[in-house]
Amino acid sequence: MSGATEILVSSLVSDPAISVSKTNFQHLTSYNWLDHKRPTIAVPGHPAIWSPKPPNTKAKLQPDNGYHYIDQNASRLKSYPLETTFRALAITDPSFSFANLDVVTSRANLRTLLAFCTGRVGKKKFKIAVQRIGGTTLLTKQSTPNRVFVKSSDKCYGEAFEKAYTKHIAGLEKSTGHHRVASYGFCGLNLVVAFEADAAVLPSDGAPEAAGTEGVDDLIKLSTLSVDDDGFMPVPSRRKKQPAPAPTTPSSSKSKHAPPAKTPANPGTALASSPKFSILRRGTLVPNTVVAELKTKSRRAAHRLNMNDVYDQLWFSDTPHLFVGYHEDGVFGDIEHHEASNLKGKDGSGGIDDWEVRLADGLRKLGDLLKKMCEIAEARGTYMLCYDGDRAKLRVEVETQGKNWLPKDLMEWIESTSMNEKATSGK
Residues 165-220: pLDDT tens digits? Predict the structure, then answer.
């Protein structure tokens, strides 16, 4: 497989002995993009707080009009879309070790690759840049375009709905997106997955649908550790070791393509800045148990909500809450709150666990695909995985001089923690 020029979907193995359930899910770090003249993130930031209207209240919203991000990281940081993930991680957990970490990717990549494995991928072409650093494989999707212009005539209300039904904590009012990073075991691999989160359900009485405006305002005050750029309260390390199970993907302790490095005396300080963007210390870490996805749907097209697309989005990020705002020509009234554990599909089946069982074959093939991608990266260092519209295969495109998808200091951090821990353990 290391010298492969393509990966056939028919070659992907679904081993029934392998469990597809995620293991040891941990929230690692988070950040918010802010609407500043210079690209700026706030670490750890905070999701917008779900702030519903009083019962029986209708809200007339104007349709979205303007640019919307498809991939905000890639749009703002074209050279290194994953850089924000690693900078935020260095701040919130400077002791993080990459020794047993197999893959760093976005949720969008996993959803795209799962669609390929299950035959649901369309004709739209895509590319994923793959790079091996130490024993870790990075996946960076090459999205085009990274943002689109939405006209009011398109009658889309997603952004308007978020603004009307959520509030940002003090100091993050200019937030343009909350991004989270989590780790978990999947099909024998240890993954770090980055994803965007729409909101957090933080009621004072424990009932998500009962949180009123006053309670939300109180939570906004309590959730803010500091609005001073230098007044960040350090977050205790939540992770000293990578989760089990151990990876089944063959890996070497050294990368032929990443530069040798020494561990910085204080990685959190040394890696907490970038020449490409500003980093502010604002907000607080929020547990994943309160994270919510928001969606809107016209009453006329309510039946078109594809639960299969919703399920995989929630599953790969372990998002427990879904709010669906139904409207008639922009007038929102009924807001449905669903828990992922009992979310029903068209056929009456429901819940993430049920979806996982039905998609087990495809998920196992996804695990096998990721392992094959790691094997190729171990041999070649850097390559482009290309989908050209042929559902039968993915093409491996190797460049003579592969591009690095992270800045040098972050590559050194990954390489050094991998090598140092392996040397300490005698491996």
Answer: 999 999 999 999 999 999 999 999 999 999 999 999 986 543 333 333 334 444 44
CA 170 vs. chain centroid, Å, equals 24
Contacts of 50-53 with C-beta under 8 Å, sequence gap 24+, read: 50/165, 50/166, 50/199, 50/200, 50/201, 50/202, 50/208, 50/211, 50/216, 50/292, 50/323, 51/165, 51/166, 51/167, 51/211, 51/213, 51/216, 52/165, 52/209, 52/211, 52/335, 53/165, 53/335
Q: Contact 410/86 with Cβ under 8 angstroms?
A: yes
Q: How many Cα atoms within 13 Å fall on the side-chain side of residue 146? A: 13
- CA dihedral (277, 281, 287, 292) positive or negative: negative
C-alpha–C-alpha distance, residues 392 and 5, integer Å: 14
Mean pLDDT, the chain, rounded, equals 83
**Tokens at 68, concatenated:** 């919307």
Give buried/exposed letters for 305-330 (b at 16+ CB in 10 A, else e).
eebeebbbbbbbbbbbbbbbbbbeeb
| pTM summary value | 0.84
DSSP 22-45: -EEEEEEEEEEEE--SS-EEEEEE
Structure tokens at 350: 């429901």
Cα separation, 164 vs 67, whole angstroms = 18
Decide if pLDDT at 8 tops 80. yes
Question: H or E element: which one contains 355?
Answer: helix 352-358
Three-state SS at 309: helix
Residues 133, 408: Cα–Cα separation, whole Å: 11
The tokens for 115 are 């669609």
| For the chain, domain boundaries | 6-425
Q: How far apart are CA 405 and CA 82, in angstroms?
A: 8
Q: Residue 344, Cβ neighbours under 10 Å: how many?
A: 12
pLDDT confidence band for 110 (50 / 70 / 90):
very high
3-state secondary structure of 276: coil
